[in-house]
Amino acid sequence: MFEPAIITHLVIAELPGALRELPSDQLNLLVNNIKNLVFGNIVSGEINPAMQDAADHYQHLHTISRAAQTVVALSLAILCTLLAWRSIHKEQRARNSVERIIMLFLIASSSIAVFTTIGIILSVLFEAIRFFQAVPLTDFMFGLKWSPQMAIREDQVGSSGAFGAVPLFAGTMLISFIAMLVAAPIGLMSAIYLSEYASKRVRNIAKPLLEILAGVPTVVYGFFAALVVAPLIRDSGTLLGLDVASESALTAGLVMGVMIIPFISSLSDDVINAVPQAMRDGSYGLGATRSETIRLVIIPAALPGIVSGMLLGISRAIGETMIVVMAAGLSANLSANPLQAVTTVTVQIVTLLVGDQEFDSPKTLAAFALGLMLFITTLILNVIALHVVRKYREQYE
Amino acid sequence: MSNKIDNEVLSASPNKSMQRVQASLARRYAKERRFRRMGISAVITGLLFLSLLFGSIISNGYTAFWQTYIQIEVHFDAEMLDPQGQRSPEALSAANYGGLVKRSLRQMFPQVKKRSDKRKLYHLVSSGAAFQLREMVMNNPQLIGSTALIWVAADDDVDMLMKGHINRHKPEADRRMKDQQISWVDELLQQGRIEQRFNTTFFTAGDSREPELAGIRGAVMGSIFTLLITLALSLPIGVAAALYLEEFAPTNRLTDLIEVNINNLAAVPSIVFGLLGLAVFIGFFGMPRSVPIVGGLVLTLMTLPTIIIASRAALKSVPPSIREAALGIGASRMQTVFHHVLPQALPGMLTGTIIGMAQALGETAPLLMIGMVAFIVDIPGNVMDPSTALPVQIYLWADSPERAFAERTSAAIMVLLAFLITMNTLAVLLRKKFERRW
Amino acid sequence: MQTNTLYNSSATQPDNCINIQSSIASDDCHTVGNTSVKNPRMNCRNVDVFYADKQAINQVTLDIGRNEVIAMIGPSGCGKSTFLRCLNRMNDTIDSCRISGEILLDGQNIYDKRQDVVPLRAQVGMVFQKPNPFPKSIYENVAYGPRIHGLTSTKSDLDIIVESSLNRAGLWDEVKDRLNQPGTGLSGGQQQRLCIARTIAVGPEVILMDEPCSALDPIATAKIEELIDELHEEYTIVIVTHSMQQAARVSQRTAYFHLGNLIEVGETNQIFSNPRHKLTEDYITGRFG
User: Fold this and answer.
1) Exposure check for chain A: N or C terminus, fewer CB within 10 A?
2) What is the pLDDT of residues A165-222, one digit of tens each?
3) CB interface of A with B, residues 173-192, below 8 Å
4) Which CATH code for domain B217-434?
5) Are residues A72 and A115 in the same domain?
6) Exposure of B204 by Cβ count < 10 A (0-12 exposed, 13-18 middle, 19+ buried)?
C-alpha cells in the first residue's frame, strides 16, 4: 500500500538538485511524467535526460521492492513456522495465549477513545500555547477587533493582524441563540405532540420524516441557506423596508435551527417517554386534561432531560461549521443585529486553515487557539448535559 | 381525627366543587385546543422545512441530469491535423482540434465577421468539444480527411438558456447570453441541431472549471476510498472496544473514565477532529495533504464513538441467560463472547456501523481541515491519490458563481442524499430483520 | 332491559369471541347473589370490555351503593382492575380498548357522548396500585387537583383544602413541617396516603382504589385500611384487592370476579363464611388463585 509513496520519495531524492527545488505542484507533475515514462504512457512535455534517468531509477527501485517483498514474506513465514513448531508440546494451552493476545487487542481498541481525547487536547493546546506566545491571552479573549490578515511584506497596508476574538464569540452566540430560538420550541412541541397526542399512524409517518432532517449533511443545509433562505430573507426584508445583509446571522441561525430540530425532538422524545405511565395515570385520574398533564406533570418531571437536550443542542450549534461557512460570512462585526453579517469561531478556523499555510504563522496558530476555545466550551456543555441525563435516567430506572 | 374546619369545607365540597369544575371547563378546553394546535403546527413546520429543503434541491437539480448538445459539421482537415502526414500519436495528440471546432462554427454561421462576434460564437460550444474530437481521431486516425456530423456538448450558458434559467426578457447587459448568441441558438434549434441528452459526463468525469465538463466521479471515488479506510478501521476497533467495555472490563474508575470519554467524544464538533488530523497526521507524522487515507483516519476517530455506543447497546440486549448457558458448559469467557454473544449482537453492531458510515459520508468540515478541498481533475485511483469527497465537492461547487454549477451542486446533493437514504434504509431493514424479542 | 351500546355499535356475541371465557360465559353467565342495592350511587349494566379482539369483561351487572366499601376480589387477570378503570373511564387512555353496556353515576350515563371525562374524573377519583406522587412538593401534589379544576380562588382557600385533605388522609401531622419538600421523598405508605389526599382534595363522590396496599409493608397497609374505614362515611369506595383478608377487613360488600365474569356478589360476611358459588368457594378456601 505504501510502496508507491516510498518509491516516489526515493526517486525524488535522486533527482538532480535543480528539479528537486521545484514547487510541490510542479514536482508532482514531474513525478507523474516519470511514472508515465516507466509504464510507457504518453508523456506531456519533452523528455529530458534527467527524467529518463529518474525513470530508470524508478524502474530499478520497483524491481528491488518486488524482490524485497518476496524476501520479507518468505522469511516471516519461516520465522512463524519455526516459532509455532517450537511451541507445540503437550503442556501448551494454545487457547490461553491466543485469548491473552485478543484481550490485549480489545483493551488497546477501547483505549483509542482516550488517546483521541488526549490527542485533541495536546494538539490543540500545543499550537494554542505557541499562539499565545505571540499574541497575549488577554488580547485574544477581550480584544474587540479581529483581522487576522498579517502582512506578507512590511509595507503592506492593513497589516495590523488584530486577534481580538470577542466579535467571533459574539457572532457564534448570536447565531446559536437564533438557532435555539427556532429549534427549541419546534423540537420540543413536535416531540410532545408525536408522543402524547398523535395517533400511531401519524407518529409512524411523521417521526421518521422528521428524522430525515437529522440525516441531511450539514453542507446541504449550507447550500440550502445560501441558495434559498438567504434570498428569501433578503427579499422579505426589502419588502419591509429593512436592510438585510446577503449573508445574515438570521439566515444561518434559522437554517441551523432547522438542523437541530430533530436532535432536540428525539432527545425530548426519549425523556418524555421515560416519564412513567403512572405519572400520567395519576394526573388523568384527577381529571386533568392532556395539556394540563403535559405542562404540569410530564414536562416538570422530564425537565432535567429536556434541559440537557437543549444544552447538547447548543453545543451542536456552537460547533456547527458548514452552515455558517456557507451562509454567515466572514466579516467580524460586533453586532447584535440578526440582519447583519457576523462571523463565528468555526468559520474563522476554516478560513484560516484552508489552503496551504505555514504551520508557525500566528494566523494558522490562531485557528488552533479558536479550536481550543471551541473544544473547551462544547466539552463543558457536553459534560454537564450528559451528567444530568445520566442522573435523570437513574431516577426512573 | 377530623376537626370542624374540615367538615365545613369537605361536606360542602362535592356539589359546590362540581359547579366550579363545570364553570372552568370551557376555559380549560380552549387551552387544551391551543396547546394541541401548537403541537400540530410544530410538526407541520418541521415537515414544511423538510419539503422546502428537498423541494428546492430537487427542483434546482433535476435538470442537471440532462445536458444540451449541439450538432456541428466537422471536416477533419488533414492539413490542420497532421501536416507531415506521419499519423504518429504524438503529432495527433498535439494537433489543434480547437481550431477545427471554430472553423466548423464559422462555416455554419458565415454571416459572422467581426472578431468580437466570432469570439461570442465560439462560446456556444464547450471547450470540451476539442477533447472529444481529439479522442475520436486518436481512436480512429482514418477519420482524417473525412467530414462528419458530430454532437458536442454546448457551453453551460447555452445549456442554461435551453433549460430556461436565463431570462430572455432581461436587459441584455444583465444576462450572460447576448441577443446575438440567443438568435444563433434559436437558429440552431430550428435546424434541429440542438438536443438535450442524458448527462453521462456528470457521472463519469472529475471536477472541471467548465460546468458542462464537470462530474462527480472523482469526488465519489474519493468518498469511497475514504469510507473504505474508515470502515476497515472503525468496525473492528469499535466492536473490540465495545466487547471489552461491555463484557470484560472491570467496573472501576478507569473504565468509567473511558465511558464518559466516549460519550463526550460523540458530541465533540467534527471540526475539532479536523484540527486533530491536521496537527497529528499531517503536522506530526508528515502524511500528505488531500489524501483519502488521512481523511479515513480522521473520520475513523470521529465515527468510533457512534459505533462503540451502538455496539454496546447491541451487546446489552443479549440476555445474560445466553452467557450463563455457555459458561455453564465450560466455555471460557472469551469463547462465550465470541461464539454466542457476538453473533447475536452483530446485526445491531452492523446497524450502528452503517449509521456511523452515513454520518462519515456526509461530513465536510474535518475534510476541509486536512486539505481534501483542492481542485482535482484526475479521478483518484487509490487511497494515496489526492482527492476530494462528495460533500466537499458540493461545497466547492456551491461557491462557484455560474448558474450551471448551482444546478450541478443540487444534482450532486441528490446523489449524496440517495447514498445516505440507501444506507439508512439498509440499517433500518437490517434492524427489522434481525430484531428479536427475548 | 334496554342496552345502550356506546363504543362499538355491534354487540358482540359471547360465542363469537375467540377466548377462553366463552365456555364459562355460555353456561354460567348469571351472577349469584343480589347485584342491586337500594338508592345506588353507580349502576353498571351488561358491561363488556374488549382489548382489541380480546374480551376482558363479560356482561357485568353490578350496583354500587352510597357510602359503602365494596371490594373486588379474584385471581390475577380476572378483569377486576379493568372493571374498576371503567368506572372513571381511565380505559379511554388505552387506544385498543372498547366498552359496551352502560355505567350510570347518579343516574347519568358516564359513557354518554355529552358526558365530559374531566368532571367525571373529578367526581370519581382514583388511587393506583403503586404510589405515584408527582415529582413536586407535598403541598403542590395535593394542590394540583384543586388548581387545575379552579376550585379555589385564593391562596388561603387552597391552604385550607390542602390541610384538610392531608388531615383526612391522616398525613397532616407527619408532613405539616415539610410541605415544601418533594412528595417522592416520603416513605411508600406516606406516598400512598399522599395520593389519597390528592384525590380527596378534588372533592370526589366515589374513590376507586386499585390494590392500594400491594406495594406497602404491613404497618403502612394497616394505616391505609384504617383510613378507608374512616373515609367510607363520606365517600363511596370501590377497592380492588388481592388479599382476601383485606377485603374481609375493610369492605361491606364483596364481588368475586373470575375470567372476566362477575361470579358472585354479596355481603362480605356471607361471601367469606358461606359462599354460594363453587368457584367462589374454591377461591376463598385457597384451591386456586
Assistant:
1) C
2) 899 999 999 999 999 999 999 999 999 999 999 988 999 999 989 989 999 999 999 9
3) 185-190, 192
4) 1.10.3720.10
5) no
6) exposed
